[in-house]
Amino acid sequence: MNSAVKPSDKSRIKGATLVEIKGLKIEGYSDDKWHPIIKGLDLTLKRGEVVGLIGESGAGKSTLGLAAMGYTKPGCRISAGSVNFDGIDLVNAPQDKLRELWGSRISYVAQSASASFNPAHKLMEQVTESALNHGVMNRDAAEADAKDLFKRLQLPNPDTIGDRYPHQVSGGQLQRAMTAMAMSCRPDLIIFDEPTTALDVTTQVEVLAAMRRIVEEFNTAAIYITHDLAVVAQMAHRIMVLRYGNLVEEAETRAMLKAPTQDYTKTLWAVRKLEKKEEKSDDIALSVQGVDASYSGVVKVLDNVTVRIPRGKTVSVVGESGSGKSTLARAITGLLPPSKGRISFNGKDLPARLQDRDRDTLRRIQMIYQSADTALNPRQTVRDIIGRPLEFYLGLKGAEKDRRIVKLLESIELNEDFIDRYPGEMSGGQKQRISIARALAAEPEVIICDEVTSALDQIVQEEILRLLMRLQKETKVTYLFITHDIATVRAISDEIVVMYKGKVVQQGLKSEVLNPPYPAYTELLLSSVPQMDPDWLTNLLRQRGGKAA
Amino acid sequence: MTTDNVDIRSIRSRRTLAQNAWRTLKSAPLSAIFGMAVILIYVLCAIFAPLIAPYGEAEIVGKAYGHASWQNLFGLDQIGRDVFSRVIYGARNTMGIAFLTVCISFTLGGIFGIYAAVTRGILDQVLSRVVDIFMSIPVLIFALMLLAMAGKSVWNLIFILAVLDSTRVFRLARNTALSVAVQDFVEAARLRGEGLRWVVLREIVPNILPPLIAEFGLRFSFVFLTIAALSFLGVGIQPPTADWGSMVAESKTLITFGRPQPLIPAAAIALLTVAVNFVVDWFLHKTSGLRDE
After folding, report:
1. pTM higher than 0.80
2. Does A296 touch chain B (CB under 8 A)?
3. Which of A38, A202, B59, B169 has the greatest number of CB atoms lying within 10 Å of its CB?
4. Domain A284-515: CATH superfamily, name plus number
């Protein structure tokens, strides 16, 4: 190893400064211009310390995290400031020196482990790769060490799991294997970039616990990037709130949770104050009775599912990925005709297949998708997108159609300036509003919302949820709300359906489902939702069997 | 990524289509401008051939293999026709036939490709396998065989090349349409109850147009080269129609006497191919959103 990149003795002392970023400015190139992304930030990280970076997308979290390892994404440049890692100036360091550091003394854990692993190689080869490449250990030592790391990360069968290929382990296991890979050279600094965002809450708990413990054990400094406040509260000693490339607020985790000083931080903290009062109703709009469904007749994804959806109310369907939530929506819309059971709407049976339903039935059940990016045709303007259902279902044309479009835009809190825009010219929240307007244009009775807020920032989520609730009050529309986010469920539902492995575990009023006594799965699901309490994870692990030590 | 970008994009959209086109043209690299200029000249030659060419296409103006002079810029061919005039008429014939062929091949390949992508199922399987079989046979040899069977006529040439070439178009149209057809907005249109016509013409086609247009340019180059090759071999465009491929063939022996005559139609072929490729390259670069790193 190059002598310049060896750790200095001083830095091994706990509490010594490891990373120092001063006046950092980063610019990105787009539309033939350089735009500021980071507008002058400072960051100091001590050995063994975990700093959380939070903020909405576009705040510059990831850019700052990568800059701490001396890296900028293609199309970005560091225009001012310094990044000092244990006495090494990373901004001006030559590429080969950076490469020497990366993987050995600084490592990176990305959001999607499945995209970061090479599917053609076994886990062990990939986990030991950087230790071998950097000449830290020989193969036997590296493999023994990897097995030790697997054990510490509580992966099942630590001695043999390395022989598997990435697709043979679960998402949570893969994310832990990636942490093992990052740890293989015992780096001084790890950048965690949204490592649990793609995981289910039940899996997230295990991964968070494993990551926190291993960072503590090896006294590793870490930068933890996330948009989830409750998660950062578990992981970080100190939190930095970023917005538009500026620092909004920085404080110790407990201090910030207790008393945020800036307005923006307060709004972040206050986000989940929204709560709808549940109402009971026996007027059933849509009912699903004993429905089975499967893809290509082999894998049964819905197993005897029975769900009642009362008129004008919000029913949330929760469950982890693979529980059959979205399949339920596909069965109701007729995209995936059920193999057994019936679906009735306003007391009449719905034809199973989409093709057999008449236009008026189609009009009454509308759908809003998770990602407005793929749900809106990028080559159509807002006028085409919202105007089509008006024309198709209601036969509106010309000036009358335009008037209605403007009215719909106003009802989703946008204005007529948007009418000629393409989806690419709007923000994520605006696009989702257009999706909502398209559904509303049909004047539906039931709207199926499939994870409509999960691709959005927290503040935008709140706005969209408020909008949906207001529209429900005004139009008496019924929502079937599919989500994995318990906080959202708590905010908007009247009734909740809990699904697990294609079966309905429980359906009931919000107050019944969210309060004890719980069926076992509901309890696991609810207790796994991170709370805004820095001791939540510690306490939870203690309750679940004293693993937190 | 930043909010500033959103604003910039919205401002850009307020320009008209013509302004946008002009802006894009101004920023085009030299290679693309060169390519467009060459194509423009070729197209003008093709359209106004009778006005530009000093002599007729099949007019005999002197003795065989006459040398270049001010009256006959590129000399005379084996029966005394003016080569310069024939090169200009050749643009009309070769390019016209190639263009027509590509249009037919895109109509065929595009319609079947998109239809296969949208409906999937057995029809898709059958069409795709048939296309696989066609694609496993080298185009030039297959075309030679079919032309030998069907007889040498311009319409046979156009039809055979169009069918063979449409297999490539089918592949591209099917694959790009497939990637669009699985998007949520197509599902949303189906849930709305839209028919196949709307789904294809309004939801899918606008999204696959850029790669198809680029492919149109490339296929034009290929077809054009194939026609030239077939003509050189004597089964393409038949005399007395002027065509660059056959002109090379007719005068190829002159090269042994140090005369540059066969190189002129050959250069015309090469220049157009390069020009089309330059333009397509730039167009693909523009529409795919790649950045120069």
Report:
1. no
2. no
3. A38
4. P-loop containing nucleotide triphosphate hydrolases (3.40.50.300)
